[in-house]
Design a protein that fits this description.
Layout (H helix, E strand, L loop, with lengths): L9 E4 L2 E4 L10 H4 L3 E9 L2 E3 L1 H14 L8 H15 L4 E8 L17 E8 L6 H6 L1 E5 L20 H12 L4 E3 L14 E6 L2 E4 L8 H12 L3 E4 L4 H6 L2 E6 L3 E8 L2 E2 L7 H15 L4 E3 L8
Parallel strand pairs: 7-8, 7-13, 10-11
Antiparallel strand pairs: 1-2, 1-6, 3-4, 3-5, 4-15, 5-6, 9-10, 9-12, 12-13, 13-14
This protein binds pyridoxal-5'-phosphate (PLP).
The site of pyridoxal-5'-phosphate (PLP) has 13 residues, from helix 6.
């Protein structure tokens, strides 16, 4: 049964479970001081996780890429996430899992090898990176001046907290009266935005970049939905010229689903509202979720361990 102190969120930090507002990590942790951390976020809707195994597999791959090991297997992490959602009682939740490097052990050189890695996780009410109102009118995007950090330096397929470029892009969007931004790589190819993947639609063909971006789980879901709807979907390099000339654009993420775009750099796309294919994909995404697509139902009655 949910307990009232967990209603606004439940957290787990290195073995300790607390209400989310009380959770803390040490200031000396490299996860905080050096962004030496990886994470993943899975959503809960209608009381069920969405693509939980896909998120756990991506989280494991990210940890391995960064040589992080929290000393827990996927079954352990799954049980912790379940426990947090159960404690909160939330039917619509944003569930994050982080693996932090830790702080160097006393007396040892300040090297990441000398840290004990650990898991932090939390369940909180579902977060929309773009409000449903903005989604209904279509988001206003800009192409940011700041390029996405180079892949050779920070691998974008490893979910990370190196958000300096994405944060600058958000401020640029704000300064230009837009909702959010898309970033290009240094060669001018489309990558992704602050917390989402990007799709363009031209002549009924749906396209998304094959590089410079996270392999989003929602993006994977969109690719599957395109197949269900008989739409051609291509994962390939996307130029900014193509983006600017597209018939439709949309973005997608765990914290928002399929989010149509109606303006790019002030230019109205179509009729200044979500395009028909983007709207159909958005509708189908939520319909399939309601039907239990890729769902792992949560038993909220089970006694929390
Ligand atoms: N790209 C970035 C930089 C992100 O942070 C996210 C999600 O947070 C995404 C893409 C979308 O990924 P997913 O659909 O797995 O949430």
């Amino acid at each position: 049964m949910p307990q009232s102190r967990f209603l606004s969120g439940a957290a787990y930090v290195d073995g300790r479970v607390t209400p989310l507002a009380e959770a803390c990590i040490p200031l000396t942790d490299y996860g905080y001081r050096r962004s030496d951390v990886t994470y993943d976020v899975v959503s809960v809707r209608h009381g069920a996780f969405f693509r939980l195994d896909d998120h756990l597999a991506r989280f494991r791959a990210s940890m391995q890429a960064l040589r992080l090991d929290p000393g827990l297997n996927d079954g352990d992490i799954r049980a912790i996430l379940l426990r947090l959602v159960r404690l909160s009682g939330l039917r619509e939740a944003y569930v994050a899992m982080d693996c932090l490097r830790g702080a160097p052990k006393p007396g040892l050189p300040p090297h990441p090898l000398n840290c004990r890695n650990y898991l932090a996780a939390f369940a909180r009410p579902y977060v929309w990176v773009m409000s449903p109102e903005v989604q209904a009118r279509g988001a206003h995007l800009i192409v940011a001046d700041v390029p996405r950090i180079q892949e050779a330096s920070i691998d974008p397929t490893v979910k990370n907290f190196h958000w300096g470029d994405l944060t600058q892009a958000l401020f640029q969007a704000h300064d230009r009266g837009a909702d959010t931004a898309v970033l290009l790589d240094t060669a001018g190819m489309v990558t992704e935005g602050p917390g989402f993947n990007v799709f363009s639609i031209t002549d009924n063909v749906v396209s998304t970049p094959d590089r410079g971006a996270l392999a989003g789980i929602t993006r994977l879901s969109v690719i599957e939905l395109c197949a269900e709807l008989g739409l051609r979907c291509e994962v390939r390099p996307v130029t900014v010229t193509e983006l600017r000339a597209a018939d439709e654009l949309f973005t997608c993420t765990t914290a928002g689903g399929v989010m149509p775009v109606s303006r790019l750099d002030g230019r109205i796309i179509g009729n200044d509202r979500p395009g028909p294919i983007s709207a159909a994909l958005r509708e189908r995404y939520w319909k399939r979720r309601a039907e239990g697509w890729h769902a792992t139902p949560i038993d909220y009655q089970e006694t929390a361990s």
